[in-house]
Fold:
Amino acid sequence: MKILLLISIVFASRTLSSQSEIIELSQFYEGKGVIFNESYKNKAGFHPSDKAFTPTFSDIKIFEETLRFFSPRPKENKRDYYRQYLGYIINNEKYLIVYLMNFKNKRAASKIYFKEWDKEFSLGLGEYYEKNGILLKFNLQDKMIGVY
Structure:
């Protein structure tokens, strides 16, 4: 029984690690980011398209460079925000779906609101999420960002 449990734990951890990759891009932001690969299926059912792709570092750098000139909340410093990156193909165009999560108050963010941010795409409802989360859609061909 113990061996079966150990095998299950190892398999689950490999499955999770194979669906996401933690990154740090200090030239763009202070926090961390997570890239969800094309096989990732989130529990919330948020899938803008059936066609997914794994965003590359190049895709993410293009997004982050473009984000410098886009400000959904002008007074906020986006350097404190952790990121989640999903890649989808919609009408034959590649999009990044990026969720920015405010981790300035790391204790509240990591222990309560975004506690599994690196394993699950974190969307929430309510005042905290409205003030501390920004969901963006980025067209990789046109280099256009919009609020989702």
